[in-house]
Amino acid sequence: MTVFVAADNMITSLGFSTEENVENFKKGISGIKPHNESERLGPSCCISLVDTQPLEQAFEKIANPGRYTRLEKMAILSIKTALKSTDLDVADDKTLFIFSTTKGNIDLLTNRNHKFKKDRIQLWKTAQVISSFFNNPNPPLVVSNACISGILALNTAARLLEISRYKAVVVVGGDIATEFVIAGFQSFKAVSANPCKPYDENRDGLSLGEGCGTIILTNYKTDLKGDQVVVRGGACSNDANHISGPSRTGEGLLLALQNTLKQANENPQHIDFISAHGTATRFNDDMESMTLDRASMNLTPVNSMKGYFGHTLGAAGILESVIAVRSIRHGFLLPTKGLNKKGTVRNINVIEDLTDTIVDHSLKLASGFGGCNGAILFSKDGTF
Length: 384
Description:
Blueprint: E1 3-11, H1 18-26, E2 32-35, E3 45-48, H2 52-60, H3 70-83, E4 95-100, H4 123-133, E5 141-143, H5 149-162, E6 168-175, H6 179-187, E7 208-209, E8 211-218, E9 229-238, H7 251-264, E10 273-275, H8 282-294, E11 302-303, H9 306-309, H10 316-330, E12 332-333, E13 355-356, E14 361-368, E15 372-380
């Protein structure tokens, strides 16, 4: 059973729609900015934040903002926007919701004055609130596995559709920035004092960001219009190297990449674009370069989106998959923001300039704490 991408949306510091975000990406605009010390974020840092005022104004048009948390508002608004481009009935019992996140409503942990019940901090409850807003009758699924959560959620959705368990799956991923999250990454000395520089010789750490993304998958092509993008395959692995450090050889990510291409019966040389993880930490970027070198994909154009909207944790796999899909539909490759001089242990083809080109096959990669790795392949329908 073929799985099609029916609709998508992105909410980041650079916009509340995919179109608005892509326009800013093409202009080379970054949403990572210096932020002064605050109660929500703690010490000053460079970070990518969703603008609160337009978020509240947009949400007021669809529901009472006081009934929902910041993350829930972002997720509901993202899904509502994605649904505008499809006729799918998400209240039908053949539709499933999957929620991808690492921390969920983590802000409720420190805000003792909030009016929400204690269970609202639980991931299952957040997912339930989101799916209930759309009157969906099915218990939602939660996928929370560090920074590959979004890819795992998409792969899970695709497999459920392949066996015709559902007609459509709404995959929404989101995380917000709080002092708790920032302090955690700072404890690893992984956060740069400046906007991140993926794959750069002088990279010195990541930039965090908050955001939310939605991808709606379906196995009913008759519900769709125009040229379609399909999910060809996906896989995950664990390199069992270290709780916070990736394999020094890229073994785990290579296994996920190879298994994904094997599922799709696709040759590595046929891949037109790789949306990589590219956190701008020394070990991650070197590991990815070794993986692509071992997969004989040194010449395949690759980018990182982290320089535009930071590392969005549980939203990253969704947001960056949206770009992988849009690259196919609209034929463009985005440069890696922050890159000045390439500097990884293996030579890879990091995109430096905005390029208009035909893209038939896009591969999304991700890695995360605990040694987890994920991959998913998107292709233009009819090109395989």
